[in-house]
């Protein structure tokens, strides 16, 4: 039987004026899996995430989410149906507390059981509980990334789109963040993860796609790609 995909991307093209940043990307994200997209700077990873979320209009291609086309689905409907993007810039409210940032995540989906959701986020991120009255702008880089993910979880997403969560973080913190992402899968969240950090993301993913200048160059089960000599040479440091 074919995999039960929460998200299917078929032949996606996205352009900035005359420049095509995605030139026919196809991928699938099975329900309950972590799928990573690996690629160097400028490969088109952020463009892919923004196109899937609906922040950028694709010029061609099809997006199928939970069995339905997203062609005429506005951003707020995508959010209401459980799609949630954690952008590369994190977009926190720096002069608001950790607690208030989390509550804004609940507001975005008009969650009523926010107390239970908050307890769950604090269980996953004890560091945020300790720092709940601290201003978001004064958190370390790793803590800010935890807060960005925690805020997304307050909206009870079904598909979490994570754009380079490890960006700018020290290797040990990267490991912490990616371990947390792995635990999200245990909570039933499906994850599309974009990363430059190939080795660390393959280690927690079920499958992966290698993106190069807007085209998928390789794909397969994460464990297989991690052993692929071609990928090893270019992305895994030999
Ligand atoms: P990085 O890891 O550096 O963020 P990326 O893989 O996320 O890279 P994108 O940001 O998606 O790559 O960019 C893909 C291509 O599209 C690049 O060549 C980039 O210069 C171009 N691009 C991105 N945003 C714009 C824009 N607003 N206008 C014009 N070109 C853009």
How would you describe this structure to a colleague?
This protein is α/β, with parallel strands linked by helices and 238 residues long. Helix content is 38%, strand content 27%. The protein has helices at residues 45-53, 75-80, 98-107, 114-124, 126-130, 141-153, 171-186, 198-204, 222-227, 229-235, and strands spanning 5-16, 19-30, 34-38, 60-65, 68-69, 83-86, 159-163, 190-195, 207-212, 215-221. It has a six-stranded mixed β-sheet with strand order 6-7-8-3-9-10, sandwiched between helices. Helix 3 (98-107) packs parallel to helix 6 (141-153). The radius of gyration is 17 Å and the shape is globular. The model has no long low-confidence stretch (mean pLDDT 91). One of its GO terms (molecular function) is branched-chain amino acid transmembrane transporter activity. Keywords: Amino-acid transport, ATP-binding, Nucleotide-binding, Transport.
Quick summary:
With 238 residues, the chain is of the alpha/beta class. The chain has ten helices and ten strands.
Structural features:
238 residues, alpha/beta, six-stranded mixed sheet, four-stranded antiparallel sheet, 10 helices, 10 strands, 38% helix, 27% strand, binds adenosine-5'-triphosphate
Number of strands: 10
Largest sheet: number of strands, sense, barrel closure: 6 strands, mixed
* Rg of Cα set: 17 Å
Ions, cofactors and other bound molecules:
adenosine-5'-triphosphate
Distance N to C terminus: 37 Å
| Total helical elements | 10
Q: What is the H/E string? A: EEEHEEHEHHHHEHEHEEHH
Structural class: alpha/beta
Rounded mean pLDDT score: 91
Beta-strand percentage range: 25-35%
Morphology: globular
Helix content: 25-40%
Strand order of the largest sheet: 6-7-8-3-9-10
Question: Which residues sit in consecutive blocks of at least 5 with pLDDT less than 50?
Answer: none
């Amino acid at each position: 039987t074919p995999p039960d995909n929460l998200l299917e991307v078929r032949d996606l093209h996205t352009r900035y004026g005359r420049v095509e940043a995605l030139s026919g990307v196809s991928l699938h994200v099975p329900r309950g899996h972590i799928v990573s997209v690996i690629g160097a700077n400028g490969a088109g990873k952020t463009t892919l995430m923004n196109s899937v979320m609906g922040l950028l209009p694709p010029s061609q291609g099809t997006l199928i989410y939970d069995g339905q086309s997203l062609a005429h689905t506005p951003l707020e409907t995508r959010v209401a149906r459980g799609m949630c993007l954690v952008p590369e810039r994190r977009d926190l409210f720096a002069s608001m507390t950790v607690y208030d940032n989390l509550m804004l995540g609940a507001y975005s989906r008009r969650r009523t059981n926010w107390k239970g959701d908050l307890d769950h986020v604090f269980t996953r991120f004890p560091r945020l509980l300790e720092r709940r009255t601290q201003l978001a702008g004064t958190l370390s880089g790793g803590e800010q990334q935890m807060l960005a993910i925690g805020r997304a979880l307050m909206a009870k997403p079904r598909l979490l789109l994570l754009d380079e969560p490890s960006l700018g973080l020290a290797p040990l913190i990267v490991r912490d963040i990616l371990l947390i992402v792995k635990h999200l899968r245990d909570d039933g969240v499906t994850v599309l993860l974009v990363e430059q950090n190939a080795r660390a993301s393959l280690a927690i993913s079920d499958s992966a796609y290698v993106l190069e200048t807007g085209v998928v160059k390789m794909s397969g089960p994460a464990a297989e790609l991690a052993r692929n000599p071609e990928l090893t040479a270019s992305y895994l440091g030999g």
